[in-house]
Amino acid sequence: MTDYDYIFEKPSQEDVLKELQTSVLFKDCTKKELKAISKVCTLREFKKGQHVFFEKDPGSALYVIIKGKVEIKQHTKAKFRTLAILGRGMFFGEVALFDQAPRSATALALEDLYLLCIFRHDLNKLVARYPELGNKLLYTLACVLAQRLRVTNERLREISV
Amino acid sequence: MTSFITKFVFALILFLIGTGLFFYFLEISLSIVIGFLLFLVTDEVLNWFERKGIKEKHAIALVLVLLSIIVTAVILYVSAPFYAQLTSFAEQVPKLSSTVNQRLAQLQESYPYIQQGVDTLQKRLASDIGGAVKIAGSVIAALLTIPLVAIILLASRSTLRQTVYDLIPNDYFEITVTVLNDIIEKLKGYVVAKTAETGVMIVLHAIGFAIIGLPSALFLGILAGLLNLIPYIGMLVTFVPLALVTLVEGNGMLFVYSLIVVVIAQVIDNTVLQTYLIGKFVDIHPLIVLIVTLIGGEVLGALGLILAVPMYVVAEIVFVGIYQYLRALQRREELARE
């Protein structure tokens, strides 16, 4: 399936499985585990310019990008500051899976988007049902969070110097 | 801020209209709501099985088998003795009535104004019995509707979520699902906990009454367990059938023992069940519980006494959800303005 097939039809369960495999988050998962994940995933289509979520919204979902690009931006001193631009296979909104705090940034569709979203309460059920899968997912998420924290620290150091 | 207040008032009006419609079509609304709650409880049981590694199809089959076993067991081991105890209780009514009349006559001799109270009570009872016959018809209709609603929801269990999600526009998708999930999870928790609490209370009372040798122990146990659904007042009402039964037996000590059973069950309920089961999901001030129960009783009668607190809990959860939702929309507007 090419990127542009999505324009004409909604991805099937099989397409979703293939896309899940390409994501960093699910790279270590078996086929059976991916199938279980795909059952709790919801596919959403966003048009260019639409917001996925806003800063300070109550949030509880993680998004995996299937197609398109997303801008993650933060509102500071009456201005929007771009934090990152994410593309296919990448994911965002993962912090909402761990705490009940409001969203720390806004996510905007830079292109027409297809996203797979997993809600906290569905992930918790999945982790309870497949503890091994839960371990893998949480470990990968922890690694990504650690990596992002390191990048943030680097930036802070650059700013303070 | 004005915009927020307008939206909040609008949501409040919608909520009140919804509540009004709920009460206007009370029988249908209650059947649908109870059917939905039954679906939530069954869904939680299915989830539990699935967590144990059982596939969905097998879990559904298991739940059906379990339900069949429970229904059969209830018919064989509970309904038959329950019916026998109910019949024996009914047979005792004439004897009970004459005993009560005798005692009342004695009392009247000493306190003549008591007759006025007895007359009012008799009129009230007569009207209540008329109402009860009317209710019986509605109960039969509800008994057919409730499982139907639950079965329809269970049949679409796997697609239900996606169907609901597809209805939500992108701009409000995550925020709506987050608040909705929060409402449903809290509701599910409360309903499951309340069901478990009632079950435990029925067992505790029935065992206690059987141990002290109270006649119709099972019937009275079930009655006491169900009456416990009415906060504070339910426990006091339990004393009435206990007093009547022990009065017929002419055994004053039996009444004292049965009171001890009720008190022990209440202590267990308040210290263990309320703290570890119900308290995890709701934390309402006892005064509010009492006021809400009294208002429920005044508006909806006996049914209101039972449903007042659960309805208050649902309203509170939904209300907080709506508030959260509107606050988030308000923040979005503020961000857009800046």
Protein model, in words:
The complex is a heterodimer of chains A (161) and B (338). With 161 residues, chain A is an alpha+beta fold. In chain A, 40% of the residues lie in helices and 27% in strands. In chain A, a hairpin with a 2-residue loop joins strand 4 and strand 5. In chain A, helix 2 (13-22) packs across helix 3 (31-40) and helix 4 (120-129) crosses helix 5 (131-160). Chain B is mostly helical and 338 residues long. Chain B has helices at residues 2-24, 26-51, 56-110, 114-155, 157-167, 173-212, 217-227, 233-249, 252-278, 286-300, 302-337. In chain B, helix 1 (2-24) crosses helix 2 (26-51) and helix 2 (26-51) packs across helix 3 (56-110).
The percentage helix of chain A is 25-40%
The low-confidence parts of chain B are none
In N-to-C order, the SSE pattern of chain B is: HHHHHHHHHHH
Largest sheet of chain A: 4 strands, antiparallel
- Helix/sheet category of chain B: mainly alpha
Helical element count of chain A? 5
What is the alpha-carbon Rg of chain A in Å? 16 Å
